[in-house]
């Protein structure tokens, strides 16, 4: 089950909430450090399910693959149960990029083409 920040708030003790509030009023450096550490942990871990066939990943299987892509502040992660699934994903991504580039070239108004291309990212 996915947990949102709002759900996590329900689990925190009153004293912990006060500490977080104090930290936030002082720039939130402690919270930022906690979130950074957690993001680094999550980045190195495979997802629970394959993003193509949705089968459960055996965490210690040698067939697992995880791709990390995108800019530093907007990192995306995709895990796969086998090379076939990763290939399927990459092919779809390539086709998507290609068709968005074709649209950009076909368009007579370059600003409209660029905008259409960006919405697909
Ligand atoms: Zn799969």
Overview of the molecule:
The chain is mainly alpha-helical and 121 residues long. The chain has a domain at 1-44. It has helices at 5-11, 14-25, 29-44, 83-106, 110-119; strands at 65-69, 76-80. Strands 1-2 form a two-stranded antiparallel ribbon. A hairpin with a 6-residue loop joins strand 1 (65-69) and strand 2 (76-80). The protein starts with a helix and ends with a helix. It binds zinc ion. The site of zinc ion has 8 residues, from loops.
Overall mean pLDDT:
86
Record the strand order, biggest sheet. 1-2
- Strand residues, percent: 5-15%
> Kindly, what is the distance between the CA atoms of the first and last residues, rounded to a whole number of angstroms?
27 Å
Shape: extended
Count of distinct strands: 2
What is the radius of gyration?
Answer: 20 Å
| Helical amount | 55-70%
**Class from helix and strand fractions:** mainly alpha
Give the topology string: H per helix, E per strand.
HHHEEHH
Number of helix segments? 5
Q: Main beta sheet: strand number and arrangement?
A: 2 strands, antiparallel
Which ions, cofactors or small ligands are bound in this entry? Answer: zinc ion
Low-confidence segments: 112-121
Secondary structure layout plus pairing:
Elements: H1 5-11, H2 14-25, H3 29-44, E1 65-69, E2 76-80, H4 83-106, H5 110-119
Antiparallel strand pairs: 1-2
Bound molecules: zinc ion.
Quick summary:
The protein contains five helices and two strands, in the order H-H-H-E-E-H-H. It has 121 residues and is mostly helical. It has a domain at 1-44.
Characteristic terms for this protein:
121 residues; mainly alpha; two-stranded antiparallel ribbon; 5 helices; binds zinc ion
């Amino acid at each position: 089950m996915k947990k949102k920040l709002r759900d996590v708030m329900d689990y925190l003790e009153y004293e912990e909430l006060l500490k977080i509030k104090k930290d936030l009023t002082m720039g939130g450096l402690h919270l930022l450090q906690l979130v950074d550490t957690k993001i680094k942990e999550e980045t190195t871990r495979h997802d629970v399910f394959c993003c193509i066939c949705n089968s459960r990943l055996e965490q210690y299987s040698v067939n697992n693959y995880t791709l990390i892509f995108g800019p530093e502040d907007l990192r995306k992660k995709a895990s796969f149960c086998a090379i076939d699934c990763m290939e399927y994903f990459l092919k779809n991504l390539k086709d998507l990029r290609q068709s968005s580039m074709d649209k950009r070239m076909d368009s007579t108004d370059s600003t409209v083409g660029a905008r259409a291309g960006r919405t697909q990212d």
